TrEMBL record:
It comes from the Bacteria. The chain crosses the membrane at residues 141-163, 169-189. Residues 1-108 are annotated as: Disordered. Keywords: Membrane, Transmembrane, Transmembrane helix. Residues 72-108 have a biased composition (Basic and acidic residues). This is DUF3043 domain-containing protein. It comes from Corynebacterium terpenotabidum Y-11. Pfam families: DUF3043. The lineage of its organism: Bacteria, Bacillati, Actinomycetota, Actinomycetes, Mycobacteriales. Coiled coil: none annotated. Residues 18-36 have a biased composition (Low complexity). InterPro entries: DUF3043.
Amino acid sequence: MKNPFKKDAGTPGDAEPADAIDTTDALTDLDGADSLPKGQTAKKGRPTPKRNDVERSAGTRRAHYDAPLTPKEARERRKAEKASMTKEEFRDKKRRQREEAAAARRKANERMMAGDPNYLLPRDQGKEKLFVRNYVDSRRFMMNMFLPIALIVVLIMIIGMTAPAIANLVSLVMLFVIVLLVIEGFFLGRKVNKLVDERFPDRAFGRWTLGFYAFTRATMIRRMRTPAPQVNIGDQV
């Protein structure tokens, strides 16, 4: 007795041969590849090869570099390298190294003077210190004349050997001026810390650190400051 849910072989509705199914699937895949959006391609059907495998097959595999473990080993490597080169080749290599090092120093100095955070010295890093620099650079202070005054004091000490009376008088005047500069620096530190507290509640530097930083910045001649001033005198910070 034949079950109603089974079909006889060769009757209509039977499953198609396997080769017909495969052909249809292949045509469907091709049609799908053609119907992809612009800028997209069909999957390549294989994993992306690793760089190491590609380099090995192309014969361009880079050799592994083993750094010297001790200074003695480094010296031996330099001696061996020098022995394998002629004097002209070794001289040219040293010249290229000096030129590259000089270019790197110039770039680092230029970026530091421009205020690039990646090249700043540790003493100048931080958003609070950037604000302090801009605040000091946008104003004039008596402390800006600290270095010229110090030079005058040195000259007075030299002249004092021949004219002690004049040297003593000028020394008293310079001492009074230096006291005024110190007082001005004290009030500058207080002002800077007050502004930093208002703008940076989560400050990362102490009050003494920022106050002394502002004082030393103000005592330098504007052209000699590092990093170079990024604001003009009178600008609003």
